[in-house]
Structure formats: structure tokens, C-alpha cells
Amino acid sequence: MSRHLFAVGLLSALLFGAGSNSPNGDWTFEDTFALKKDQRQYIEIHAKQKTHRLTFRWTLYQNGGLVMLVKYDGHRYQPLLYADYKRDGFRIDLFSKPNDASPMQFVTPHALLLFKRFDEKKREAWIDVKIKADEKTEVLYTKGR
Description:
The protein is mainly β and 145 residues long. It has one helix at residues 2-20, and strands at 29-36, 41-47, 50-62, 65-72, 75-77, 80-82, 89-93, 110-119, 124-132, 137-143. It is built from 1 helix and 10 strands, in the order αββββββββββ.
């Protein structure tokens, strides 16, 4: 009898516990883009009656590394991303942290660009964009030329 209770308890813990750690449920916005060289992608983020613009493109793919140009609110970045674990992402904080914010506030609104793979035949880079925002932020995007 106790074996059956243990098995039922273990099964329910696995079923109900798996969904709580899912990273897919935490993002406000996420999408995947296939971009050719120098093809720009625009994402507009509306928050607090202000529009922020995130623009990115890639310029070089060499030896498995993807050189990107990223621009957010006038700040320019040039990350080098690889498709393997821990070198595939670039994080941008969307808003400055308020002065009265708690030092224990670990999760702030941010965007994450993830290099997933490169298609050699089509010469396209597959990039995931994930944005974690608060409830006052609206995210819109338009595909560049």
C-alpha cells in the first residue's frame, strides 16, 4: 500500500512540478527571426508613455561565430555570439533601475537575443528574441527591410 502511495506522490510531483520551472511561461514576448546578412529587425517597446527601439542585424558569420550589431535607445553594442551553451545570448536591460529599487530585485525588464543556428544554404541566422517586461509595457515589432 505504501509503495502505491509513494508512486502516486512521485508521479504527481513530476507532473505538477515540471510546469513550474518552464522557462517559456516567464517571458512577456518571444519570437524567432531568420535574418540574412545586414537585414535589420526592429522591435518597439512602449512603456511609461515612451517608445524604445531595439534594432539588430548580423554582419559576419565566421568559424561558428556571429557578429551582431545591436542598438537600443542610442546605445550601440557589437556582441559575438556562438550557437553553443553560455555563449549564445546577449542581454539588454530595457530601463534603468530606479533609485529606490531594492537591491534584492534580481529580475528587471530586459531583452535577450539568442543565436540558435545558422543555415549555410540560405545564409540565414536564426535568432530568438525574448523580452521580460512588466504589466505596463507593450511590445510591438516590425520586420525591417
